[in-house]
Amino acid sequence: MRTLDTRDVRDLPAVEAHGLETEPYYLPIGDEVEVFRAAYEARLPVLLKGPTGCGKTRFVEYMAYQIYRGSASESHAAVATPLITVACHEDLSSTDMVGRYLLVGDETVWIDGPLTRAVRSGAICYLDEVVEARKDTTVLIHALTDHRRILPIEKQGVILDAHEHFLLVLSYNPGYQSVLKDLKPSTRQRFVSLEFDYPPAEQEARIIAHESSVDDDMAADLAALGAKVRQLRQHGFEEGVSTRLLVYAGQLVARGISVHRACDVAISRAITDDVEVQRAVAEIVATIFP
Amino acid sequence: MRTLDTRDVRDLPAVEAHGLETEPYYLPIGDEVEVFRAAYEARLPVLLKGPTGCGKTRFVEYMAYQIYRGSASESHAAVATPLITVACHEDLSSTDMVGRYLLVGDETVWIDGPLTRAVRSGAICYLDEVVEARKDTTVLIHALTDHRRILPIEKQGVILDAHEHFLLVLSYNPGYQSVLKDLKPSTRQRFVSLEFDYPPAEQEARIIAHESSVDDDMAADLAALGAKVRQLRQHGFEEGVSTRLLVYAGQLVARGISVHRACDVAISRAITDDVEVQRAVAEIVATIFP
Amino acid sequence: MRTLDTRDVRDLPAVEAHGLETEPYYLPIGDEVEVFRAAYEARLPVLLKGPTGCGKTRFVEYMAYQIYRGSASESHAAVATPLITVACHEDLSSTDMVGRYLLVGDETVWIDGPLTRAVRSGAICYLDEVVEARKDTTVLIHALTDHRRILPIEKQGVILDAHEHFLLVLSYNPGYQSVLKDLKPSTRQRFVSLEFDYPPAEQEARIIAHESSVDDDMAADLAALGAKVRQLRQHGFEEGVSTRLLVYAGQLVARGISVHRACDVAISRAITDDVEVQRAVAEIVATIFP
Amino acid sequence: MRTLDTRDVRDLPAVEAHGLETEPYYLPIGDEVEVFRAAYEARLPVLLKGPTGCGKTRFVEYMAYQIYRGSASESHAAVATPLITVACHEDLSSTDMVGRYLLVGDETVWIDGPLTRAVRSGAICYLDEVVEARKDTTVLIHALTDHRRILPIEKQGVILDAHEHFLLVLSYNPGYQSVLKDLKPSTRQRFVSLEFDYPPAEQEARIIAHESSVDDDMAADLAALGAKVRQLRQHGFEEGVSTRLLVYAGQLVARGISVHRACDVAISRAITDDVEVQRAVAEIVATIFP
Amino acid sequence: MRTLDTRDVRDLPAVEAHGLETEPYYLPIGDEVEVFRAAYEARLPVLLKGPTGCGKTRFVEYMAYQIYRGSASESHAAVATPLITVACHEDLSSTDMVGRYLLVGDETVWIDGPLTRAVRSGAICYLDEVVEARKDTTVLIHALTDHRRILPIEKQGVILDAHEHFLLVLSYNPGYQSVLKDLKPSTRQRFVSLEFDYPPAEQEARIIAHESSVDDDMAADLAALGAKVRQLRQHGFEEGVSTRLLVYAGQLVARGISVHRACDVAISRAITDDVEVQRAVAEIVATIFP
Amino acid sequence: MRTLDTRDVRDLPAVEAHGLETEPYYLPIGDEVEVFRAAYEARLPVLLKGPTGCGKTRFVEYMAYQIYRGSASESHAAVATPLITVACHEDLSSTDMVGRYLLVGDETVWIDGPLTRAVRSGAICYLDEVVEARKDTTVLIHALTDHRRILPIEKQGVILDAHEHFLLVLSYNPGYQSVLKDLKPSTRQRFVSLEFDYPPAEQEARIIAHESSVDDDMAADLAALGAKVRQLRQHGFEEGVSTRLLVYAGQLVARGISVHRACDVAISRAITDDVEVQRAVAEIVATIFP
After folding, report:
1. Is the pLDDT of residue C272 over 60?
2. What value, to the nearest 5°, has the Cα angle with vertex F198 and ends F195 and F203?
3. How far is A19 from chain D (nearest CA, A)?
4. pLDDT of residue E269
5. Which string of DSSP letters, residue by residue, matches C208-247?
6. pLDDT bracket for residue F168 (50, 70, 90)
7. Any CB–CB contact under 8 A between B81 and chain A?
8. Chains A, C in contact: 3+ Cβ pairs under 8 A?
9. Which of D:168-197 have CB within 8 Å of F?
10. Closest partner residue to F16 among E41, E159, E193, by Cβ?
11. Across C10-19, D76-85, F233-242, which has the greatest mean pLDDT?
C-alpha cells in the first residue's frame, strides 16, 4: 500500500461504510428518535448539543442505521455509506472537507473530501464538535442548509446539488465552549436542535453491564457512582464523568483490578488533576463500595 | 468526475446559473423593490443590512430574476447567469474571488473566480456577509464601485472593464459585528444601503404557510410566536428568531411532532443555550399553544 | 482568455493606460494644482492626505492627464501609461508591487508588478491608502524617494534606475488610522504633503449637478445637506459624508425615488448604523426638504 | 545514505524497534504494572501523568517489553516493533503523525507516519507530552480511542482499522501545563489515568547505584538529597529534581569531581537560575555531605 | 528583460556598484570620518545611530567612496562594488540576505543574496534600520562580527570566509524603536557605535543651498527654521524635521511656490497630522519669514 | 559556485571543520575545564549559562580542540569536524537542524542538517542561545540526551544512533530571557550546568593585551574600566560590558583614536542608548584616564 498509482486513486473503495453492517447499540432516552426521523423526512439539518461522552456519536450512528438499513426504502438501501463522520479541529479547512487536487505521476487527479462524498452519495454527514473547525467551513454549511442545498466546489468551478438523501448533522458541547468559539446565529438558526444529557441511572446501568461484562449489581453501583460524581458539577466541578469511563471501570474490575483502584484510575484521576475533586470522588467511591 | 483533463477545465459549463429558472418566492415589505431597481438602473452598488434569516438572500435572488428574466431587455436575457453568490469568510482571499492558475497535465490554465465571472458576464455579484472576508477583498470592491468600474487581475497583468450589466451587492448584519470587523468608511460610502427586518406578522404567516404546509391558523400562531420572541431582544436577548426556524417548526408539526416539542427543538434550543431565555420562550409557547 | 501561453505574457498590452484618454473631471479648490506641478518638476514625491471620497483619486488622475497629455512635452506624451494606481491592502507584498516569476509551459517568465512598470516607463505610481500595505512595501518606497531613485528587484538581482518622468504619489486618511498603522517618520519625511477636504458648497453643487443630472436647485440643496451632515463630526460622529454619496442621492432622485427616501438609503443609512446619527441626519433632511 | 531512490523508501527497515532487544531497567513502585496490563488486555487507552524525569518513558518501555517480548503470546512476539514513541511539540501536525506523499524521482510514494505504523503493525504508540502537540492531532486520538478503533487517513482517502494489539498511551505533566494547553475533557475522558511521582528514597538509591557506579552509601546520600530538594516545592520552588540529575551527580563523582561541585553543576544550577533556591540547595548539600 | 534564461542569471552584472562613480556630497560634522576609518582598519563592525534623515546613509556612501575609490590601495580599487545596501523590513528573512535556489528552465541555479555578495567580494554591507529585520537575520550578523568572520550558507551546506575587505555596518534610530524591536545586547555589543544628529545650522545651510539652488540667505533661514522646529521636541513633539524636508522647501521656493506655502506642504504637514504642532510650526515660519 | 549539480551536493566537503586547526586562545577561570571533561567522559550533555560576550563560545571551541586534537585518542583524532555550532533563532526549525530533501536536476537528494552531521560523525554540537530556537527543536534534544541517544529523522523515516563521541552542548543567557522563552524543566533537567561570568580583572587584562596590541598598562586600565562598568548593574543597568568591547576600545587606541573617544564609541554608546548610563560610564572613563 506504500505506492499510489493513478488507478488506485480512481478505484478507492467506499471505505467510510465502516461500522454500520450491524445495528449499533443505543438505548433511546426520550423521543429523540422520533424527532430526528421527522427532521430527516423534512431534510431539516440537525444540531446535537450535550456534554462529553453522553452518546451523541452513537445516536447518529443508530439513526443512520435505522434510516438506511432498517427501513424498507430501496433508494436508502442503495446508499453504500450511510454515515460519514468528520471530527472537527482548528486546522480543518474547507479544502479538507471538500476535496483537493493531487499530483499522481504526471497526472492531476481530484479527490473528494468527506463532505463532498456525502453530498454526492446521499449520506448523512456528521460534523463532530463543529465549533472547533476553521471558520471557512461554516460557509460550506450555509449553502447546504437553506433552500438551495448546494455545495460550491470552488477549486473545480462547479456547484453540486445535494443528493436527495443527504443531511447535515452537527454536534457541539455548549458546556466548555468559549465565547470566541460559539456558533454564529446565522449558522445555528439553520438547525433543529436536540439536547442530550447523560442517561438516567437505570439505562446507564444496562449500558455498563452490556459493554463491560460486570454483573448487574456492579453495573448499578457504577451507574449510581456516575450520578453522584455528576452532582459535583453543582459544587464547581464543571465536567461530569462520561458513561465511557464508567464502562472502563467495569472492564478493569472484570479483569481483576479492585473496584477502588479501578475507580481511581478510570474515574477519579481520569476526569481531573485537582486533588480536591479527586478526594471528593474517592469519598463517593468509599460510600458506594464500602 | 474524479479526473480533470484540460478539456474539462476549458469547457466548464456556466454552473452558477443555479436556482433562477423559476421565480423565487419573495413577499415585498415596502418599497425595497423600487429602490433596488432605481439603484440598478444607475448601476449604484447596493448594501443590504439586516439580521439573520430575514430574507436578504431571497430578495437579491428575486431582484436578479426580475431584472434578467422578468423584463423585456434582450441583452439582460442573454446573460446566462444572472446572480453569482459568494458566501464570505475570513479565509476568502482576493485570489479566491478573482481566479487562479491551475496546473493541468503539463499546461497552465487560468480559472476565473466568481467575481471575475460576474464582471465578465454582466451578472449581479452578491457578497454575502462581506465583513467576514479578508481585507484584501475590499480592495477589489473599490475599483469596481467608483467611476472606473474596473477589476484589476494582477496575476494576469490585465485590467478588466466591467460588463455594462454588472452590479455589486453586499450584505452584512450590523447586529453582531465586532468593531474589528466593521466596514471601513471608505468602503461603505460606495453603496446605497437598504435596511431589512423580519416581515410583519401577516406576511410572515403567509410565508410559513407557503413553505411548511401547515394550515393558516397554525401559521398565524407561529408568526405571532416569532413576533413575541423577537421582543425578548429588548430584555437582553440580542438575536431574534429567523423566519426559517418558524418554518422548521411548522414542518415538524406537519410530520406529527407535537407543537410544544416542535417549538422546543426548532425555536427555543435552536436560538440559544441560555436556560433563562429558553424558559422565557417556553412560556410564550405555552401562552400561544395552551 | 482562459489559457495563457508564453507569447501572451510577453506581449501583454499596456493595460493600465485605462481612463486617461479624456480629461478627468476635477474642480480645483485652491492652489493644489500649482503645488503638485512644482513638486513634480522637482520630482519631489507627494503625499495626499484627506477623508474618504473627497477627491484625492480624481486629483491625481487630473494631474497625470495635465502633465502627460495636456502639456507640449513630447517625452511625456510618449509615455503610454501616465498613471498606475495600486489600491493597498494588508496582504499586498513587495512581490505584488515589484513582480514575480511565472511558470508558463516549461518556461519561466518574469512579469513586472505595477510599481516596476511605473519605474520603467516613467509613469506616476499612485499608492492609494498606503498605510494598509504590508511593511515590506515601505522599503521599496525609500530607495525611490531619496537621491538614489532606484528600485532594487531582489528576485532578479538587478537594481533599476527610475525613468526620469517617474514620480511616487501616496494617499492616506489620517482620520481613521490606528496608531499601529501610522506612517513611520522615516517614510513620511520623504514626501511633500497636500491636505484635502470636502469641496466648498458651491463647488460641490456643481459636481453633483454634473454627475447626477439633477437640476441646480436640487444640487445646491444636496450640497447644503452634505455640509450640515459634516458638521455632525463636531458632535461625535467621526466620518462625514462623501461627495459620492450626495451624487448617489441625486441619481436616485433623477430616477424617481422621493428625495426623502433617496437621502435615507444613499446618505443616512450609508454612513452609519447608529440610530441616533441616522435620526440626526433625518432631521437635517426634513429641514432642507420640508 | 545521502541519496534516496524509490527502492530505499519502499524497503525502509522497521527502524523503530530500537531499544527493546533487552529488558529495560525499571523498578515498579506500586501496582502500576498490574493496572497497565489489565488496561492493555481490555485495550483501554492509558494516560501517564507525572513530573519531569520520574520514569514515565521507562515504564512504557518496560511494559512494551513485558507484553511483546516477555509473554508467551506468539502473535505479540511477531510484532517487530513493540513501541513507537512520538515526542510531541507544537509544530507536530497530524500529517507528521499519519504520513505524507513524497516525490521520489518522478514517482509519488506514500510514507507512513509513526502513528500509522503503530496502528498497522499492532505496536503501542506512545505520545510523550501530548498537550504540546497541535490540536489537530487530538482528533486522530478520538477515533482510535472509542469503540471504532479506526485511523482515517484523509490524504489517501482510506480508513484503517487498528491492529488488534495496538494501544495508544499518552503522557503529560499536570504540574507546568498552562490553562491553554490542557487536555480537553472530550479527550481525557477516553483514557485510564496512572499517576507517577518520583520513586521512594530506597528505590531511588538503587537506581542511582545501578546507573552511576557509585557505592551504596553515596547513592543513598544522593537519594536523600533528592528527597530534601523536592520538599523545597512546598516553599515556592515548583519543580523538583529528577532522578536523572541525581544519577548525573553520581557519574561526575565517579569521575573524580568533588561531591560538592558535582551537586552544584548537576543539581543546583541545573534545576534553577534563582540564586535563593541555589543557596537553599547548597545548604542541603552541606548538611548531607559535611 | 522579461524572460530569464540560465545564461542571464549566471552573467548578472555587478549592478550594486550604483552611485559611487562620483564622490558623494557629505559634510563631516566632527571626527566621525577618522573614527570610522580606524574601525575599518581594525575591521571592527560599526553601528550608526541617529534620527531620520540626518545623513547616515550619505555618510556610509561617503566612507565607502573614500576607502575604495579615494585611497591608493590597489586591492580596494579592485572591488567592483564598494557598498551594498539592504533596507531592512520585517519580512526580510535570512534567505533574502544570503541567497536562494531558482528554477531556471530545468536547471536549478543559486543566486547570492546581497549579504553573500558583500562577504564574497569584499564590500561594505550596510543594513539600514536593522531592527526592522526578522530575528533570524541577526544570527547571520553574529558569526560575521566575531573572530570567526564567517557566513554559514545553510542551503548550500557551505561556510564562507569573509573577504579581507568586508565590513558590516548597521544603522538604527533609537528614538522611535519600541522595546520589542530593540537590538539584543548579544548583538549590539559587537559594534563600535557612532551617534549622529542633525547638522549644525551653518553646515545645514550649506547643504540646503547646494541641493535646492536657493540663495544663501534663504538657505540660512530654512536652516534656522529647522533648528527651531527641532526644539519642539522638548515640548512633546518627538520627531524633528529632516534636512531632506528643508531641501524640499527650498526646491519648491525655487520653482515659484511662496515660502509660506512651501514650508506648509514640505515641513508642517509633512512631519505631523497634529494640528497643534502644525500651528506651532506655522508660527515659527511666520517669525522667520515675516 | 553559482550552479549546483548533483555531484556537488554529494561531495560537499566537511566545511564545518572551520577554526580548529590551531588551538583557540582561552584562559580558564576555575575548574570549568575539568568539569566539562568529566561530563564529556560520561557523555553528559552540558549547558553553559552566562552573560553576553563572557567567553562561552571560546570555551566550547577550546574544549573541542582539547578533546579531539590535543588528546592521544585516535578515534577522536579521526573525527574531521570536532565542533558544529548552530546559532539559534526563532525561525530555526527542526528541519533546519536535521536536514531536508533538495531537488537537484530531476533527482531528489537529502542534505544533512548540522545536528545530523554531528550525530553521525561524532562531533560536539553546540546550540548557541538555544531558547531562541523554535520549540520543535527541543524535541530533538530530548531523545539525544537520555539513555536512548537517538535522533529520529522523520522525513527519512529512520532513527539514527548517535556516534559514541557525540555530545550536545547548549548555551543560554539567564539575564535577559523572558518568561516565555525559558527552558522547560523537562529540557533543562537533562544537562550538567556550568555558569560563566566575565573574567577577573587580571585575566581580562591579559586577554585585552593579547587581542588588541595595546601595552600592559592600557590593558589593565581597560580591564579596570570593564569591572567598574559592570558594577553599574547594581544601579539598574542590566547589561555589563563584554570583554570584546574592551578589546575594541584597545584596538581603536592602537590605531590612534584618543582613549576617551575610543571608550565613547566602543563602550559607552555601544552598550546603551540611555544618556544617564552613558554619562555614568563617561565619569568612570574620566576617573581611570584623567
Report:
1. yes
2. 120
3. 7
4. 92
5. HHHHH---HHHHHHHHHHHHHHHHGGGGT------HHHHH
6. very high
7. no
8. no
9. 173, 176
10. E159
11. D76-85
Q: Residue E21 has what pLDDT?
A: 76
Distance, in Å, from the CA atom of A163 to the CA atom of B166, rounded to the nearest integer, reads 32
Contacting residues of D for F161, CB less than 8 Å apart? 18
Q: Are chains B and D in touch, 3+ Cβ pairs below 8 Å?
A: no
Rounded average pLDDT over B57-67: 93
> What is the average pLDDT across A12-16?
34
- Looking at the partner chain, which of C103, C241, C261 has a beta carbon nearest the beta carbon of B35? C261
Collapsed DSSP state (helix, strand, coil) of residue B248:
helix
The helix (run of H) or strand (run of E) holding residue E283 is: helix E275-288
**Residue B108, C-alpha cell as written in the block:** 497552465
CA of D191 to nearest chain A CA: how many angstroms apart? Answer: 7
CA C16 to chain B, closest CA, distance in angstroms equals: 7
pLDDT at C183 over 60: yes
Distance from CA of A247 to the nearest CA of B (A): 29
E145 touches F: beta carbon within 8 Å: no
Q: Which of A39-43, D138-142, D276-280, F255-259 has the lowest mean pLDDT?
A: D138-142
Sign for the pseudo-dihedral over CA of E185, E187, E189, E194: negative
Average pLDDT over residues A38-48: 95
pLDDT at F26 over 80: yes
Q: How far apart are the first and last CA of chain F?
A: 54
ipTM value for the complex: 0.82
- Give the closest of F89, F96, F270 to E189, CB-based: F270
Chain F partners of D242 at a C-beta cutoff of 8 Å?
A: 189
**Considering CB atoms only, which of B4, B90, B270 is closest to A110?**
B4
Report the alpha-carbon distance of residue D88 to residue B157 in Å, rounded. Answer: 45
State the nearest Cα–Cα gap between B193 and chain C, in angstroms: 5
Does residue A261 sit in helix, strand or coil? helix
Burial of D92 (0-12, 13-18, 19+ CB in 10 A): buried
CA distance C193 to C195: 6
Mean pLDDT of chain E: 83
Interface of D with F in 271-290 (CB under 8 A): 271, 273
Strand ranges (DSSP E) for B129-216?
A: 150-153, 158-161, 167-172, 192-195
Interchain contact C202–E (C-beta under 8 A): no
Given this model, what pLDDT does residue C105 score?
55
The CATH class of the D15-195 domain is: alpha beta
> Would the pLDDT of A257 be above 90?
yes
Say yes or no to pLDDT of B248 above 90: yes
* Nearest residue on chain B to C6, alpha-carbon basis: B108
pLDDT tens string D19-36: 577 888 898 989 999 999
With a CB-CB cutoff of 8 Å, which residues 43-72 of chain B face chain C? 44, 47, 49
The pLDDT, as a whole number, for residue D91 is 66
Confidence of residue C10 (pLDDT cuts 50, 70, 90): very low
Q: Is the Cβ pair B89, A154 closer than 8 Å?
A: no
Q: How far apart are CA F19 and CA F33, in angstroms?
A: 20
Q: Quick one: which of D106, D116, D147 has its CA closest to D5?
A: D106
Task: Quick: pLDDT tens for D152-174.
Answer: 887 776 788 899 999 999 998 87
Residue whose C-alpha is closest to residue E174's, from E198, E196, E192, E153: E196
Query: How large is the average pLDDT for residues F37-47?
Result: 95
